[in-house]
Amino acid sequence: MSIALLTSPHYLLHDFQGHPENAARLKVIEAALDRSGMRERLVQLTPTPATVEQITAVHTSEYVEGLERAMMQAPGYVDMAPTYIVPESFDTAVLAAGGAIRAVDAVLDGEANAAFALIRPPGHHAVPDGAMGFCLFNNLAIAARHAQARGIARVLIVDFDVHHGNGTQDAFYADPSVLFISTHQYGAGFYPGTGAASETGIGAGKGFTLNVPLPSGAGDAAFERIAAEIIAPAADRFNPNLLLISAGFDAHWSDPLASLQLSHTGYGKLMRALVALAAKHCAGKIVLTLEGGYNPGALADGVLTVLRVLLDDENLPDLIGPAPHSEPDVQGVIKRVKDIHDLKNP
Questions:
Q1: Which residues make beta-bridge pairs with 262?
Q2: How far apart are CA 74 and CA 68, in angstroms?
Q3: Nearest CA among 207, 220, 102, 201 for reference residue 160
Q4: What are phi and psi of 153, to 5 degrees?
Q5: What is the rounded CA–CA span in Å between residue 277 and residue 314?
Q6: Residue 8, helix vs strand vs coil
Q7: CATH no., domain 3-341
Q8: Is 125 a catalytic residue?
Q9: Dihedral through CA 162, CA 54, CA 271, CA 182, nearest 10?
């Protein structure tokens, strides 16, 4: 199975000293790829910038034009998350969206079976008319619309970042051609405050947004059940033609910005379940884009774990180890989501 990797040194130009979403995140991943010998096992592809037409398939032209003008006032902030900009941020964000598009093209054109776009700034909080949560353009949503423009009828998006992918949800909330599934920490004061199980879509899109809001401390056992009891039956019913994944690694137990408890062993099991779904429904076609993850070591090892699963490695080392605390009972959450979406037991 050939796996494509897309990244660019230009992604390092969007950087703000002291901010958790900084260029060092990508540097540590790049170093881990070299140190592990992983890079030599992958098909190296170069991203190209997205076009205005591709970006405005998701975002309003007023927002795109306003963000470009804002570069004249950079550095600064464009929302209260805080989401920063520097003079290079607009061009970097356009290239990030282009990286996600290039990854989709690589998979659809048979250059690779799957592709991981190591792009930044991240994207899943960016709403159609604005920046949000460290995100400028919604890279994966733009990639999904590009796939549909190429004839893909049904797109499954799975977001396992610890924060709810509110921007992606907003982009497809009324659209039955995209099934959006988000697993995320949820509770009073936790960012962005959206993603309740009751948020299921509107109009023709009713039932095509599936949120799994998790309590602090949920980890490997919870995600194993979610994959089997929620994601798999929802995917079976939807029968997607392409699987897109918002790959955030801030659900790891060591991440400083959240308090879920996935280990790399848990990430590996989750990714194996997603690979099986793609093999069943999408001829194995998977595209991942990098989202969050703010413990450098956990972030780098998480990316390596996902790539090893895509390469079908048997050995998935977990150098950081299991979570230090026991998990809460998530039976109530799982039952509520299954009842709302009429999902049967496997």
A1: 252
A2: 10
A3: 220
A4: -80, -45
A5: 18
A6: coil
A7: 3.40.800.20
A8: yes
A9: 40
Tens digits of per-residue pLDDT, 77-91?
999 999 999 999 999
> How do residues 260-274 score in pLDDT, each as one tens digit?
999 999 999 999 999
Catalytically annotated residue among 125, 163, 164, 264? 125
Is this prediction's pTM over 0.90?
Answer: yes
Burial degree of 142 (CB within 10 A; 0-12, 13-18, 19+): buried
Kind of pairing between the strands at 83-85 and 76-79: antiparallel
The residue among 334, 327, 187 whose CA lies nearest residue 263 is 327
How far is Cα of residue 126 from the mean position of the Cα atoms in its chain? 12
60 contacts 142 by C-beta, under 8 angstroms: no
Which helix (H) or strand (E) segment is 209 a member of? strand 209-214
Tell me the C-alpha distance between 61 and 188, whole Å. 34
Domain ranges within the chain, ordered by starting residue: 3-341
Rg of the chain in Å (alpha carbons): 18
